[in-house]
Structure formats: structure tokens, C-alpha cells
Amino acid sequence: MSPSPFDPRAGFYEHASLAALRLAGYQSIRVPTRSGRLHVLRGKGAGDGAPVILLHGFSSAGVHYRALMRRLRPHVRHLIAPDAPGHGFSPTPSGLLSLAEMQEGLVEALDQVSDKEPAIVYGNSMGGLLALRYALARPERVRGLVLCSPVGAPMTAEEMKRFLRRFRVDDHVRALAFVNRVFDSPGPLRHLLAWGVRRKFGHPTMKALLSALEPDFLLGPEDVRGLRPPVLFVWGRSERVLPPEHKEFFLAHLPPGSRVEEPPRFGHGPYLTHPDAVAEQILAFARSLAAADRPAN
């Protein structure tokens, strides 16, 4: 079942991107889960690399990976980009949306649409937390895990309150400040981006999700240490949304052998500003895992 022709929660860019992806051969489907019928983009690639699953961040959507998907597609067998519950073209569940429900819905959706072959799972920001929890829930389905500026580091209630203030964009000035933190170089579109951020963050679903965030859903050291798939941890030197202590938490607890990269120009969402570099990062990681799988001569 395809999404309705017009979803009022998505903007013009999302609808235009969805139309372009459909024209490019991507399936746009809805998958039944306990969190509602989640929208998933699924496309066949032209390469022989491992499938790639892309998990988006807070208030974002799968179509926002469009530029990255275009660069990955020639090299991989399949690409999958789901919309989390209440995001993109996925409907908002009845009742209060929680991160736990969001996680359960994504796991159910990916169980139905992903190949049996383990995939490279890429998650940015909130998508990084969801990707990590997916790897804990379904380690046999994850060949490699790429965590880019993931949220999820533990916080006290007071620390969380201070952190969530960063996402209050009640006026254009605050929205501009947020855009400046997200992008390493917002450019001439910063006012348009700020308008979009304010519109999305002002949506009742996004406000409810932020208000429902509790410290007990965040990660503990044992969660990060318990990861079984190989991990590539990416934290750009231009990261200005998440506090540096969050990076230190992950670095202190990543499993032995995890790879760490800190590109100088990467901000909080580098797949938007540097899709070529992010694609090469993912593909190089996948190639290294494929080489490790080959038997020695």
C-alpha cells in the first residue's frame, strides 16, 4: 500500500523527493507493525555490495537520504530507508509516542522488508540510537554498524532537561541558531532551513516525543559494550548539537576493534552536506568487512 498522494505532515521537499525516488525505481510501501503502518523505501541496487539500511534522525525522514542513496546504489544489492513512527510518511500512532514504541515498530518493519543477508546499518543522530538498539535486538541481521553522531549517551534528569532546551525552536532566532549548530556551513539557505526546522519541531508529534524522552531509554555502558557486529563510529569535528561528553561515553565503551573517524568538516548531519564523503565512508567500511570475510590464500 502506498502513502496517500499528499501527507500534510511532510513538506514540498519530502513529496518531491518521494516522487523522484519512485521514478528512480524505489518501492514506497507501508508495513504493518504494532506502531502503525510504517512507510519504507526499498530499492534494488546495481552492485554486489552488502545491503544498506539507513535510519534517520529526529524530525527527519527516509527521503532525506536521497542524495546518499543515489551515491550508494551503484555499489550495493539493496537499499532500505524506513520512516520511523510519526516521521515522514509513517502515520502517527494513537496515544503517546515513545522511543521504545518507535524502536519496536522499526524492528518489526525491518524484519519484514530486509533481506536475510546481513546489512550495513547506518544511523545518524536519533537514528544512531535506533540503529544501535536494532543491532542489539537483531545482531544476526547486521553485518556492520555505522553510528554517526549518535544520541543515547546517559544523562541525569537535569542534564536531559538542559539538553532538550537545544530543540526548543519557538521562534526564528532559535531556529537559526539550531541550523547553525547542525550544519558546518549552512550557506544562503539558512533562513529557509530555519523555517523548515521550526515547522517540523513545532509539530505535536515531535513535541510529544521530546516530552516523552526519559533517562531510562538511554544507553548504559553494557549496551555499547554488548554490540556484536563490527562498528564504525563517526563524530565530525564540526559537531555542535551533541555535547562532547556524549562522544567520550561512546569512545569509552565501544567494543575492542571498533573504528573511529572524526572528519574535520562533518557536522551533525553530514549525509546532507557531504553525501559523497559519507557514501565513500560507508562503502570503504563495507569493503573492509567483505575482505575480512574472504578466506586467506
Structure explained in plain terms:
- It is a single chain.
- With 297 residues, the chain is α/β, with parallel strands linked by helices.
- Helix content is 42%, strand content 15%.
- It has one domain (12-289): Alpha/Beta hydrolase fold, catalytic domain (Rossmann fold), CATH 3.40.50.
- The chain is built from twelve helices and eight strands.
- The chain has an eight-stranded mixed sheet with strand order 1-2-4-3-5-6-7-8, with helices on both faces.
- Helix 2 (66-72) crosses helix 12 (275-293), helix 3 packs across helix 4 and helix 6 (172-182) crosses helix 7 (190-201).
> What would the CATH topology be?
Rossmann fold
Please name the CATH architecture: 3-Layer(aba) Sandwich
Percent of residues in beta strands?
15-25%
Unreliably modeled segments:
1-8
- Per CATH, the superfamily is Alpha/Beta hydrolase fold, catalytic domain
Q: CA-to-CA gap between the ends?
A: 49 Å
Number of domain modules: 1
Radius of gyration: 18 Å
Average pLDDT metric: 89
Number of helices: 12
Largest sheet: 8 strands, mixed
Shape: globular
CATH class assignment: Alpha Beta
What's the β-strand tally?
Answer: 8
In spatial order, strands of the major sheet run 1-2-4-3-5-6-7-8
Helix content: 40-55%
Kindly name the structural category.
Answer: alpha/beta
Q: What string gives the helices and strands in order?
A: HEEEHEHEHEHHHHHEHEHH
